[in-house]
Amino acid sequence: MFGYVVINKGEMKFKEFDVYQSYYCGLCRALKERYGVLGQISLTYDMTFLVMLLTSLYEPETAKGMTKCIAHPFEKHQTRRNEFSAYGADMNVLFSYYKCLDDWQDDKKILKLAYSKLMKKSYHKINGFYVDKVKKMDALMREFGQKEQENIDDIDKMAGLFGELMGEMFVVKQDEWEDNLRRLGTYLGKFIYLLDAYEDVEEDIKSGRFNPLKSRYENPDFEEEIKTILTMMMAGCCQEFEKLPIIDHIEILRNILYSGVWYRYEAVHEKRKVKGQESEHA
Fold it and tell me: From CA 144, how far away is CA 176, in angstroms rounded?
């Protein structure tokens, strides 16, 4: 979840944005305390969604505070933290570790390999907290990497593996909400994987990198097909979300699921549309 599960700030009230930002800052503090600056570097807005979702569902005691940081050195800003801030920090670092390994396998980026080695100790720490969960996620990542190396362009299979990974991440307890959270995460993971492939397909074709959409890209109905699949995935995700008994922060979470997640798609789609129109008139 890097850059896809975000808010639509233009459709959010100032008060709601302040609440959202406070959970983000709380996650940042949790990352620093649990994993130091290296962990803090991995911070993204995406994991804030998971922290807020679990907080709204389970309603744990949440501590409010004020803090300064490098990004805001001159004035204090509010933080909100609870047990799911720590969980979000753990998953954020684990996901960053996996992504670095995947980037190294795909592009042989030395910096990614170096960062993954620096994060190895943190990975072992997280594995100690969630032995069964990490074991399942490791197995999924190995299969995912193997399928990429084999150039398996079955989009359902590839998106499904990433969806399973996200589904496992969204489950924190074996309770009545376990299945809903797993399905929600799975649908969201499939959406993210497909959207990432859609955004990168032109560059991947040029560079020769793996992308399961490469064989579909020249099809005249490519754009319509992708939009349809993405819509189906988010419809399933939102359906599972609406089954959860959430009251707190409901508008913020809906802003993300119904609007924010589409921001990158709309930006890429519009860019390609303009590019296509320019090509027609050239």
Answer: 29
Top pLDDT among 71 and 37 is at 37
Tokens of 182: 């797993």
Cα 17 to Cα 8, 54, 98, 111: the distances in Å are 10, 18, 30, 34
Is 7 in contact with 260 (CB distance < 8 Å)? yes
Dihedral of CA 146/148/152/154: which sign? positive
Read off the tokens for 232.
């189906």
pLDDT in tens, 12-34: 999 999 999 999 999 999 999 99
Cα–Cα distance measured from residue 5 to residue 230, given in angstroms and rounded to the nearest whole number: 14
The per-residue pLDDT for range 125-176, each reduced to its tens digit, is 999 999 999 999 999 999 998 999 899 899 999 999 999 999 999 999 999 9
Q: What is the pTM of this model?
A: 0.93
Residues 6+ apart with CB under 8 A from 240: 180, 181, 183, 184, 187
Structure tokens at 131: 């032995």
CA nearest to 5, candidates 189, 140, 266 = 189
Helix 263-281 vs helix 222-243: crossing angle, to nearest 10: 170
Q: What is the pLDDT of residue 93?
A: 93
Instruction: Report phi then psi at 141, rounded to 5.
Output: -65, -35
Burial class of residue 21 (count of CB atoms within 10 Å of its CB; 0-12, 13-18, 19+):
middle
Secondary structure (3-state) at 246? coil
> What is the C-alpha separation between 209 and 151, in angstroms, rounded?
9
pLDDT in tens, 112-126: 667 778 888 999 999
The token duo for 87 is 């969980």
